[in-house]
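Quiz preparation item.
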């Protein structure tokens, strides 16, 4: 009969509860709209009120109220309101609510109340509290929520607020199924940011790449885009930076990308009609360096600065994996180029998301954790904490070098008519796969005469019949979902990729590290902390680990996910925190929540002493083989049914 909006339903509710005159501004402020919108809504509602002999009484200098027999029509009005509430609440997911609350608190710097949010979102205050607690989980010590009689608002440094927004932006992106291209990032973030700001920043980043002809990782480009977007949105709204992180990194004076930062600022601000501050010019200059975009850098100076560290890193990894990579100039050059921006970024507390993290940890888990241990001295020297994403990027460099030592892989690229479309595919995947990959372009008609014996797999944009090698089908334009499929096929079908991870650890060495004293079976535990504390306590009591081992384990958990193969966790600490190498193992009666989404039933706590780092490849390789095997054992409840520590030791010895 009458189609009213959610806002109009809220306006009816407010009017029916107020017995005094209130100005239109009162309702406009409450509903976060203009006074003109309130008057337009009232005009549309006059017909509904007339049915019940209710009049909208407007008095100059006093305001608005309803006159008439409101009580007799109360049931119908409430029915209308509740119907709209029911319809509207179905459209608000918890993520929708969190995005809206985030925008008001962190983007717009508004003060909100649980009551107003409850009315706006048609949800209970209990749910609002949970949503705000979720938002609070993305904040660090620089930012906090203040609640008092005025409401709830954000308090903290501008840098801290922008870092929090970036974490929330990545969280929002990760909830979407298809989010791999820069344009899709921009589309998803329209829910948080002004569309004009998004379009201008997106265009400026595209212009930057085109003008400088940069061969830059897509993930660095996306991270730069998000950081620029957040800074611009906040500055556009009048919330400017007041300080920069105190990095104190030697060599920053040799950077000359400040003019480029000024050009980017001018490109964006001239279209949006505002001005960045001088401090924000410097901030963008820092962001360019941290994301590996620079006009000129004194490379000889940087090489001198990091040469010994990189050489030592390569030597340590070579020793641990028993593959000599010390003469690999490409590895050396790539690491020299990588580590300087990485340190600068970490000291600036800039986060770069690596979407291939899970694949890298799952398929190159041994080399991933070897690098984590090897980088310990590097972290100490430069006073930084590497995240899992950082270790994954370094792992890729080393994995490429390892594969250069092995047989060259060949991938065949097939298209309907040959090279034009094939070139599009090659250009999209050349930065995704290792440098030792040899690509061969071919048209479909020529496939019947091609020798496929040395081909690992085929990438094709057309349907193929009667081929003897695995085929991954992609669209002619190669979407980001196609890239993920290609990477998965590479992991599965490229020859020799796990050759060095298949070594078994001798039973005598496992016996040295595994002791029945540190095995806990079918424990009644409720939390992750209870599991870790019980295992660590015994290691501390026996003097196996040092005073700060416990702190190191928990810090490692904050930096990244220690889950392996879904239901198994392998927490660990810095090697300098262990006096001797021991492995503590716990199984639980009920799965334990390990992070926001995953539960584990098997925990393998590693205490690896510095003197045993040379054996880490064999140790991790053997453990990973058992963990992979344990997936089927978990399904059959084999491990859960183990009652004696010696039985578990026998399992990990491979007996």
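Solution:
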């Amino acid at each position: 009969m009458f189609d009213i909006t959610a806002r109009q339903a809220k306006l009816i509710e407010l009017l029916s509860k107020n017995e005094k005159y209130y100005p239109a501004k009162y309702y406009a402020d409450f509903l976060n709209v203009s006074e003109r919108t309130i008057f337009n809504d009232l005009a549309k509602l006059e017909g509904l009120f007339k049915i019940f002999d209710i009049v909208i009484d407007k008095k100059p200098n006093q305001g608005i109220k309803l006159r008439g027999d409101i009580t007799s029509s109360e049931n119908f009005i409430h029915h209308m309101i509740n119907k709209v509430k029911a319809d509207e609440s179905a459209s608000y997911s918890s993520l929708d609510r969190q995005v809206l609350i985030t925008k008001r608190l962190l983007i717009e710097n508004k003060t909100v109340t649980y009551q107003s949010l409850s009315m706006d979102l048609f949800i209970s205050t209990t749910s609002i509290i949970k949503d705000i607690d979720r938002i609070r989980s993305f904040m660090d010590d620089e930012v906090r929520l203040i609640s008092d009689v005025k409401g709830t608002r954000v308090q903290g440094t501008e840098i801290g607020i922008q870092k929090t927004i970036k974490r929330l932006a990545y969280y929002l992106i990760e909830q979407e199924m298809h989010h791999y291209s820069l344009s899709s990032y921009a589309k998803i973030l329209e829910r948080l940011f002004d569309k004009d700001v998004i379009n201008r920043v997106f265009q400026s980043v595209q212009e930057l790449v085109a003008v400088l002809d940069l061969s830059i990782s897509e993930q660095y480009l996306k991270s730069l885009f998000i950081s620029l977007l957040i800074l611009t949105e906040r500055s556009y709204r009048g919330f400017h930076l007041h300080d920069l992180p105190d990095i104190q990194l030697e060599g920053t004076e040799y950077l000359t990308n400040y003019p480029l930062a000024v050009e980017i600022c001018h490109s964006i601000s001239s279209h949006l009609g505002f001005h960045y501050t001088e401090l924000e010019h410097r901030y963008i200059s820092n962001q360019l360096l941290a994301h590996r975009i620079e006009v000129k850098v004194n490379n000889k100076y940087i090489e001198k600065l990091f040469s010994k560290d990189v050489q030592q890193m390569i030597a340590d990894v070579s020793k641990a994996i028993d593959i000599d990579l010390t003469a690999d100039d490409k590895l050396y050059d790539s690491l020299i180029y990588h580590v300087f921006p990485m340190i600068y970024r970490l000291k600036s507390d800039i986060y770069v998301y690596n979407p291939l993290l899970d694949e890298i940890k799952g398929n190159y888990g041994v080399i991933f954790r070897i690098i984590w241990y090897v980088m310990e001295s590097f972290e100490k020297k430069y006073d930084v904490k590497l995240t899992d994403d950082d270790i994954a990027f370094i792992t890729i460099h080393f994995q490429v070098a390892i594969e250069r030592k092995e047989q060259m892989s060949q991938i065949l690229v097939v298209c309907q008519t040959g090279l034009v479309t094939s070139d599009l595919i090659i250009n999209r995947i050349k930065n995704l796969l290792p440098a030792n990959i040899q690509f061969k372009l071919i048209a479909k008609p020529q496939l019947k005469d091609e020798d496929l014996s040395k081909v690992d797999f085929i990438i094709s944009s057309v349907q193929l019949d009667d081929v003897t090698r695995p085929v991954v089908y992609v669209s002619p334009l190669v979407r980001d979902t196609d890239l993920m499929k290609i990477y998965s096929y590479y992991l599965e079908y490229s020859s020799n990729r796990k050759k060095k991870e298949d070594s078994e650890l001798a039973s005598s060495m496992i016996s040295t590290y595994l002791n029945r004293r540190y095995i806990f079976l079918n424990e009644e535990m409720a939390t992750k902390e209870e599991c870790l504390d019980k295992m660590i306590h015994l290691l501390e009591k026996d003097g196996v680990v040092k005073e700060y081992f416990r702190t190191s384990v928990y810090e490692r958990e904050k930096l990244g996910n220690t889950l392996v193969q879904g239901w198994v966790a392998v927490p660990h600490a810095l090697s300098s925190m262990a006096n001797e190498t021991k492995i503590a193992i716990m199984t639980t009666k009920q799965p334990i929540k390990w992070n926001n989404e995953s539960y584990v039933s098997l925990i393998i706590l590693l205490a690896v002493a510095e003197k045993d780092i040379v054996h880490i490849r064999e140790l991790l390789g053997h453990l990973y083989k058992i963990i992979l095997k344990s997936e089927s054992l978990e399904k059959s409840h084999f491990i859960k049914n183990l009652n004696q520590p010696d039985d578990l030791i026998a399992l990990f010895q491979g007996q």
